[in-house]
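Onboarding guide, step 5: your first structure request.
Type a short instruction followed by the sequence, for example:

Predict the 3D structure of this protein.
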Amino acid sequence: MKKPFYFFFIFLTIIFLVQTSILFAQQKPQGKRPKLGLVLSGGGAKGFAHVGAIKVFEEAGLHFDYIGGTSMGSIIGGLYAMGYHPDTMTKIIRSQDWTMLLNDKIQRKYIPIEEKVNADRFVVSLPIKESKVQLKQGLYDGQMINILLAETTSPVQNITDFSKLETPFVCIGTDLVTGENVVLNKGSLAKALRASMSIPSYFTPVDIDGRLLVDGGIVNNFPVLEVKNMGADIIIGVDIQSGLYAREEITTMVRVLDQVTSFYRIEANNIAVKNTDIYIKPELSGYDMMSFTSFDSIYKAGEIAARAILPQLKHLADSINSFGTTEYKPKDTRPPDSIFITVVQYKGLHKVSKNFLDGSLQVKPRTWVKMADLKEGVLRAYGSGFFESINYSFLPDEDGANLLIEVSEGGQGIMGAGIHYDSDYKVALLLNGTFKNFLIKGSKLFVDISFGENPKASAYYLVDRGKKPGFGIKYTYFNLDFNSYQDGVVLDVISTNENRLELFTQISFKNTMQFKAGFEYEYFKVESTLDSQLDFSFNSYFSLFTSLEADSYDRSSFSTRGTQFEFKAKFVMPLSKDWLTDLQSNSVIIMLKHNKNFPVNARNTFKTGLIAGFTIKNALPPFQHTFILGGQNENNSFDGFVPFTGLRFVEQQGYNTLIGKISWQYNIYKTFYITPKVDVGLLSINFKDLFDMKYIMAGYGVTFGYDSFIGPVELTIMGSNFNTKPLGFINIGYYF
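The system replies with structure tokens like these:
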């Protein structure tokens, strides 16, 4: 009895072991685990769809062994390869001002106060190199993109072999000289990403190892074969390319550029698609490569396309993961808050002194440096205008990192041109030459010539030493014709002509504040175009002045944040000896202007203004130093010209004034604005009459504005207690 029992027990044991081995074999497939690759195509702003797709890949439990991308696909792929979670990528993308980023627009707070006026008045600007006006290799140098990439790639500062990233990575560039496909898998990751997305003619090319590289999408926009060559057995590809447009669809410059570059990559795309195992094509027909303000909807399109095959993605993840567990780091990469800097190195400095960069960056060796402070320092240096580009990277070091600052110094300067029309000053064309390091290192020379009905010209030479006293000299010429009114009726047309020379010393603070003190000489003429008896010859005047100016506006037009402030005191003395100057006397004039923005929310901004001006002891200053109210032009020829809603240009004149302004700026849609406004003021000849309420002026109006590429386009409808009939004001273009 015992032997059959033993045989039966042994038989059951053998059956159990066989079944267990079969189940184990089913749960853990034999053979080598297949390698999974992710390929992301280029397509500009449409690349935001990659982030939505990656979110679904994470949900499915997919873990990629290799990642490759081109252009925007290289940026999203590079971030993912570094270990950024799609939610972190989303936060980074949403936090960017893409208009400023793509147009290399630096925030006004980083621009020296004397150059803020130049930041927003040119329609065209061209560099001057070797005493010649030249065309650039691209519309933009990509400075702001460079800073963003340097910041986001800082977590892998010590990695120069992209196969050593959390996920091995490769991206593609195009050799501008040979047209060859260039595989980028070593060196600076930030530089490689910048080269891969360098749209020809839009961004300047990038020099890597002696090769001039532009957007890889020209020849290889979907690098499937490159990822296969890395070792991938299975390829998941997300393709955001538009393909070729039909004739009726080629309606913009962006689509023309997209169409031209598409011709060269058609064959490569067809081969790449055939080698893709899971091909995802988001529906993006309503977008183009510059639709950077449509992140949410483009992101959603990528998510929808990937979610449509979620069961297939989960099945693939389960199949690959069944080969056994592999440890994967969580996707929690973020830029470090601080980095320990051992050495600071500069590359490319020739004309600009090392001391200037030291002062701008304020980075000391062998100290912890906050990434935010380093970014601020780079922006301060770039905002000076002495550099075409200034980029930073980190070199591996045992104790921390060597900070390498690579600069491309600007040429001799720039030539700029602008165009403007308004109801007060009429049509004008501006030509500007801005020259750096002219005669003295750190100096700036600005030359303006404005052609039009009221011509102007100026030459402004400045040696700015920051908090240390600098000095400047400025010459100004202008001619201005305007109407003279009485009770709203035109009595005369007055013509003025002035030559002004200023010499001063100045101290600047953080690009937003400037103190000046100096003197000016004026050679001034005023005459009537209707009455020859009022034809006065040129007269001379001498002034001593001191001023304090501040400008922290975020934008010169349609600003939403910041303050503008000016305090000026001057002592004016007539020098000529004739009957006109005998009527005038030495005068002390004090003026204060203060404007402030109060942002309410993303669309609404409450604005206030205060203007106060006084002439001490009832002196009689010359015409050009009186307070003259009216019009809407914010950039006037004389200090005392004050725009006032509801009054015609130069309609009211006095020696003392006090004005309050309020307005509400509402952003209707994208770049369209409506601004209702109210101005209330007092104006008098004698100070004792300044607060007499019978002289009070009240103006009201509404401005309809559009922020165009040539500057603000505005229509103002207004009225006042002096002008009961509606008045109009038109402005087109940046003020100058």
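Each response can be followed by summary notes, for example: The chain has 16 helices and 35 strands.
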